[in-house]
Amino acid sequence: QKRKGHGVFLLNSSPQEVVITPHFLSYRLSGGILDFYFVLGPHPHVVAQQYHRVIGKPFLIPYWSLGFHQSIHQFGSRDVDSLKQVVDDFKSAQIPLDTIWIGDDYMEDHKIFTVDENRYPGDLLRQFTTELHDGGYHLLPLIETGVKIEKGYPVYETGKQQKLFIRSSRLSSDEPAVGKGKAGFLHYPDFTNPNTSSYWTHWLTRFYSLVAFDGICLSSNEIISFCPGWCIMATDPTVLERGTLEKECPCDHIEFDGSERPPRFVPGDQPLDDMTLSLNSRLYLGFERDFHSLYGHMESITTKTAIESLRHERRTLVVSRSTFAGTGASAGHILAVAESTSYVHTHNHSYRHKHTNTNKKEHLQTDPFSVMAESVSGVLAFNVFGVPLVGADICGSFHHSSNPELCARWMQLGAFYPFSRNHNEWERNHQEKANPEDLYPLGDLVVNASRESLMMRRVCGLSSILCFPRRFSDILHRISVFARARSSNLTSTRGQSSPSHRLFPKR
Q1: Would you tell me which of 291, 389, 401, 491 could form a disulfide with 497, CB atoms 3.0–4.6 Å apart?
Q2: What is the sign, positive or negative, of the torsion defined by CA atoms of 426, 428, 432, 433?
Q3: What is the edge-to-edge ordering of all strands in the sheet holding 420-422?
């Protein structure tokens, strides 16, 4: 009730476990140094300000990023005409729209910095982006992190020739580490290498000549691999392409506990190398286990710097799935994958004990409305973390298609996220279909809820699409708040930085 507070910040990227009780704060680390910052406050909002001065102020966002974003992520069913149709659907339904996102379906075989010329011919795509920009809209493509291992693919050939990929955990080998993703077998750029910046900038510039984008979404940059890290795969692309090894993850070598310097302490007793590279993979500045949490952070910085240089210092938007302390200075964030309906999910964890592999199954029950509610605390928390441009996948995005009631309620809530985007997984029914007569009839409930909620968010002049004056302009207010957040280290969304129970204590 005295509205007092202080903070403790441990700057350490190693796997760790934190225990907070009313009586003590406990850290258990698997490595790194004890670099503590004690933030004295004395009030909660002052604690947030002081913390942001330590990690870096949030970047100054482009005005258009506060508009509504529609992600189009239907692999194999999209082309330039369908993109135009989505924009027309929003116009006809009088739903505000400011930015179109295109998923990895625009790529050729999921290869980054490429465009599928069959469905997105260069001339038509350039014409569409020109019309899009002339209409006041913006375009933001998704980019995966891994580079497909394919002979003749210039992004792969250049990176391997210049030795810019994360290297294998085998100390006797200088070959790149191999992971697996949608594109197939992958190498991963090493953003701790000072030469990677010019490599990344070069290919972003080449990609910009194909697609005149306004920002980038960095996906799967945790690093994600469909194969576990203890499965060390062959690095010979010829062997991988031939598919002579029938296993889904063709392990050429197995890392066992105790043989290759695992961490002495494993937080939560969970396998740290599940769906990622080996913890012993080597980067320019160290091992993967020390830089795993920093990878997306470093990629965000490199990407933002590169895009601003090729766009002549105009403000840009980088959105990252993976973050670290200070990422808000270069990127926004999308909260963890949101579930779109109730389901029972079985997930397999691969555990290793000495030389034995065992499986444990978890059964998870998910309530989509509880996930929607939890997104509010996520938005508020990331404002305290110094990442003010944040939001969840509106209407839910994975496992099942959304339904009208859930999507309508989520649109009403999502209109007030700092970062407002509707997104769904590529196998699911179209959520961006604004017209009730279209293939996925979400109906008038969703259309009306979207229109009314987003009209409260937008401001006249943000784009050319049917802008009506309102009693108040949430976007105009937000851009002022974001500017204040950068200049004064204040949070853009009031909540956990100045919690309601602190501002209005119970009597």
Answers
A1: 491
A2: positive
A3: 390-391, 332-334, 317-320, 215-218, 138-143, 99-102, 68-72, 420-422, 393-394
**For helices 196-210 and 154-161, angle between their N-to-C axes, nearest 10 degrees:** 170
120 touches 207 (CB < 8 A): no
- Residues forming a β-bridge with 287: 282
Pairing verdict, β 16-20 and 25-29 = antiparallel
Burial environment of residue 121 by CB neighbours within 10 A (0 to 12, 13 to 18, 19 or more)? middle
**Which segments within 153-270 are labelled E, that is strand?**
179-181, 184-187, 215-218, 231-233, 251-254
Q: Does residue 5 contact residue 41 with C-beta atoms inside 8 Å? A: yes
Tens digit of pLDDT for each residue in 467-504?
Answer: 444 433 567 777 777 777 777 656 655 544 444 444 44
Dist CA 180 CA 225 (whole Å): 5
How many whole angstroms separate alpha carbon 192 and alpha carbon 178? Answer: 18
Contact (CB, 8 A) for 361 and 346: yes
Instruction: Give the burial class of 442: count Cβ atoms within 10 A of its Cβ; 0-12 exposed, 13-18 middle, 19 or more buried.
Output: buried
- In this structure, are residues 410 and 395 in contact, taking their beta carbons and an 8 Å threshold? yes
Element (H, E) at 333: strand 332-334
